[in-house]
Specification:
Elements: H1 2-25, E1 35-38, E2 56-59, E3 67-72, E4 82-88, E5 95-97, E6 103-106, E7 117-126, E8 132-144, E9 152-153, E10 158-163, E11 171-174, E12 177-178, E13 192-197, E14 202-204, E15 210-213, E16 225-233, E17 243-253, E18 261-262, E19 266-272, E20 280-284, E21 286-287, E22 297-302, H2 305-310, E23 311-315, E24 322-326, E25 337-346, E26 360-370, E27 377-378, E28 383-388, E29 396-399, E30 402-403, E31 412-416, E32 426-428, E33 434-437, E34 448-457, E35 464-474, E36 482-483, E37 490-492, E38 500-507, E39 519-522, E40 532-536, E41 541-546, E42 558-566, E43 574-584, H3 594-603, H4 608-615
The structure holds 2-acetamido-2-deoxy-beta-D-glucopyranose (3 copies).
């Protein structure tokens, strides 16, 4: 056999090397050497060295004891004068020497994988002199390999992932096995890999164990996982060797080799017209056989502005469905049907695997608006009117108007919510929405009338809605000013001309926007009053001033002085109050005890009734004109 010859070549080479090493120990000796002969060959080389060591071999796993060689000194004349002694590794246990013949034999079965060689020492001793005939030296017994170990895969399990659609020859993984047998001897540890299962998609390089793809266009969407069974054999795969196998799990990872595709060419949705903005109208789904990022998609609406502005479409991140959402309020009465195209496109496109347009798909959306019976709608969200407080009963304040937007177009009936007008100040025309004044207004009582106006469908559904109509009552100058108090002026005896007797001010319930302007004056008369005069201070006050210095109670105890107060309204209103000015013999400091005045009045013969009567103001209302 060729293989066997090859092996012998090896062992010879090893023997020569060992010889070189061992001979060094006996280099000093130049005598004729004893020799060691192998059990199989009986060559008798003589060299100049004392010992000639040949390599001894013993096949492993051989249970039969056998002679594997013989130790022989050149001085041995066969008279048993020399004793051979063996020591070192395995001496007496694995190997024994015949002390007379020098034959070395095995004692037991040896395992190369346990111990591949034994280093032993040999001695040749003269039995009589007990002197060594030869110097002690070492030799080697090598255990020869037989193929008694199967190859074993390392680093199991093998798992690998390669992208789908990868080119033929893409490396998948390298498997690797080891064999405990002697890699230097024969083919016992020469390993060959092959595929048992997984062809034609995968192949293995026989010597390296590199697994590669051998099939183009492996499609993850068709088959995602392959179990590749790889076998390794020793003896270069020749028969009689050992083998073992392993499984390589190969997964195909996704590439973007599929575009999204709508499930339907047409989607029809219905939505009530009163749906609020943000309501989900429906969902469209595009399918993509890829996974993860390769299956992510974006939707859009492609159409003329009105259609696509009324709706939007968004991607549901969880399902990648397209969610159609209402973006603008609908009105069944003005548009009942929307038709538009929806487009889907992969978020990532890879033109290596597909042409660009295959990453896009289109479908048609038809959205039908459903009629909803809606309450009447006021033409204005609120109403605000102004009316002057003197406006006549029966005059119109304003008109509300509401419409039934439904197709039925019901007539509307108007009314005022009673709780918003408990005094029934206003009246509503139920047919035309005109609000009129039912009772005289008074701004000074109520400035605002905030009415809740109801519009109700007259026939079908009787739905109603309300609106607030605020009516502001505007001021007109309908109140005359009056003196601010019940003045009881007096003048002390001895008061000098020009001295102030009483300061006057006035009040008016009207509320002119620019503020009050009161004017004080005497009653116009043919004769000038020689006793008192009124000085208007131009700040809504006036003073009564004495015109002479000679007032005495003896002369006269009371004077009547009519005072006219006018406001700045247009037209102006005025009132006249007649003040009674008493003359008093004042205490020092100008104080007049009230008893003093009255006592004197009675003694003067003026009745109390007359006195009180004189204090009553008479109101003159001049020029009463209505606004508007
Ligand atoms: C509303 O109807 C009343 C009769 O009820 C009528 O006098 C008034 O002129 C109408 N107003 C309008 C604005 O049509
Ligand atoms: C009525 O409406 C007016 C204007 O909206 C507001 O200023 C006023 O406070 C309201 N009055 C009442 C009593 O609600
Ligand atoms: C208008 C007026 O009251 N005049 C009186 C002024 O005082 C004298 C004297 O007391 C009276 O006689 C006037 O009547």
């Amino acid at each position: 056999m060729e293989a066997a010859e090859d092996t012998r070549g090896w062992s010879v080479l090893v023997a020569v090397m060992l010889f070189a090493v061992l001979s060094h120990t006996s280099a000093a000796r130049d005598r004729e050497a004893p020799r060691l002969t192998s059990g199989s060959s009986h060559q008798h080389h003589r060299l100049k060295r004392g010992w000639i060591w040949k390599q001894l071999f013993v096949p492993e796993e051989d249970p039969t004891p056998r002679v594997i060689g013989q130790l022989k000194s050149d001085y041995d004349r066969g008279e048993s004068a020399i004793q051979y002694i063996l020591s070192g590794e395995g001496a007496g246990d694995a190997f024994a020497i015949d002390e007379y013949s020098g034959e070395i034999r095995t004692l037991k079965k040896l395992d190369r994988e346990e111990k591949a060689f034994y280093v032993l020492q040999a001695q040749a001793i003269n039995r009589r002199s007990k002197e060594p005939e030869e110097p002690q030296s070492e030799f080697i017994i090598k255990v020869q390999d037989i193929n008694d170990n199967a190859p074993r895969f390392q680093n199991e399990p093998y798992v690998s992932s390669i992208p789908e659609m990868c080119p033929t020859g893409t490396m998948v993984v390298q498997v690797s096995a080891t064999d405990a047998d002697d890699p230097m001897f024969g083919n016992n540890a020469k390993l060959i890999y092959s595929i048992l299962q997984g062809e034609p998609y995968f192949s293995v390089e026989p010597k390296t164990g590199i697994i590669m793809t051998s099939w183009p266009n492996m499609d993850r969407e068709a088959k995602e996982k392959y179990l590749v069974v790889v076998q390794v054999k020793d003896m270069l795969g020749l028969s009689g060797g050992f083998s073992s196998s392993t499984t390589v799990t190969v997964s195909l990872s996704d590439v973007n080799d599929n575009g999204p595709m709508f499930q339907h060419h047409l989607y029809t949705f219905a939505i009530p017209e009163d749906a609020t903005v943000g309501t989900t109208v429906g969902r469209v789904t595009a399918e993509d056989a890829d996974v993860g990022a390769n299956a992510r998609m974006n939707y859009s609406l492609v159409d003329d502005l009105e259609e696509s502005a009324t709706f939007t479409i968004q991607t549901d991140p969880a399902t990648q469905a397209g969610v159609v959402v209402l973006a603008k309020p609908l009105d069944y009465e003005s548009k009942r049907r929307y038709v538009m195209a929806a487009e889907v496109v992969n978020e990532q496109v890879d033109t290596v695997f597909l042409p660009l347009d295959e990453f896009t798909d289109r479908t048609t959306l038809k959205i039908v608006v459903q009629d909803v019976n809606e309450p009447p709608v006021f033409l204005s969200p609120s109403y605000e009117w102004m009316v002057t407080e003197n406006a006549a009963v029966g005059s119109a304040v304003g008109v509300v108007s509401a419409r039934d937007t439904d197709t039925a177009d019901d007539p509307i009936r108007y009314s005022i919510d009673k709780s918003s007008d408990t005094a029934k100040t206003f009246r509503m025309d139920p047919l035309n929405g005109t609000i009129t004044i039912a009772k005289t207004l008074d701004r000074e009582t109520a400035t605002w009338h905030n009415l809740t106006v109801i519009a109700k469908e007259a026939k079908h559904h009787r739905l109603s809605s309300t609106v607030v109509a605020s009516i502001k009552v505007l001021d007109v100058n309908d109140n005359a000013p009056r003196l601010a108090g019940l003045y009881q002026p007096y003048i002390c005896e001895g008061t000098q001309a020009g001295e102030l007797i009483q300061l006057l001010s006035a009040v008016d319930p009207d509320e002119p926007p620019e503020g009050h302007h009161f004017y004080f004056s005497m009653v116009p008369d043919m004769h000038i009053n020689p006793n008192f005069t009124i000085r208007d201070n131009q700040d809504n006050t006036a003073g009564i001033v004495a015109r002479r210095s000679t007032f005495t109670r003896k002369d006269r105890s009371r004077y009547l002085l009519p005072v006219v107060v006018s406001d700045g309204g247009s037209p102006s209103l005025s009132s006249t109050a007649t003040l009674t000015i008493s003359v008093c013999s004042c205490q020092p400091g100008g104080h007049c005890p009230s008893s003093g005045v009255e006592a004197l009045a009675l003694s003067m013969g003026v009745s109390l009734q007359t006195f009180v009567g004189l204090l009553v103001c008479s109101v003159l209302v001049t020029g009463f004109r209505l606004w508007g």
